[in-house]
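Issue 218. Parser rejects a valid record. Input:
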Amino acid sequence: MYAVMESADKRKDEEKQRLEAQFRTLIGRVAQNRDRQAFALLFDHFAPRLKSFMMRKNTSAELAEDLVQEAMIAVWNKAALYESSKGSVTTWVFTIARNLRIDRIRRDVHMPMTELGDYDEPSEAPEGEELLGRKQEDGLVAKALESIPEEQRQILILSFVEDMPQSEIATKLSIPLGTVKSRMRLAYGHLRRILETGL
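Output the parser choked on:
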């Protein structure tokens, strides 16, 4: 029986190592070539897992979707900053998502603070390269925001700058909640396309 369990554990370890090797290759392609196909594969794997992880930590489905989108845009923009010597791709991606959630919680005084401990690593002051990456990312996002339709940009600003729930946005703009959600999805699609292609 122990032999069977050891064999199963070994197979799990081998599968995990195989996946991580594949993720490292995909991240490398995104970093070096801005490979959209590689990013799509990473997105398809991590997006549902990040959402599930967030929701297990008492995050609403709506907020979880927002944070997953933000996290995966960050993965696209920061792929070149990933270093395999500092940890696995999985840990790196989940750490990005965790930090985004913590930032959102700190902006929202009405939400109780819950730490995502599963991937808790010591925080370090950002180094020059990371600060530069953040500035470049901020510039790309600002440029992308200018390129999307006004009605979509307005909803993104109310949601992320003013931290307004979608239900309040619907009331403020006198439009149905479904319209707010639809415009938010369209805005994400525009942002993702602009950030990926630079167009």
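Fixed in the parser; the record now loads. Residues 127-199 form a domain with the Arc Repressor Mutant, subunit A fold (CATH 1.10.10.10).
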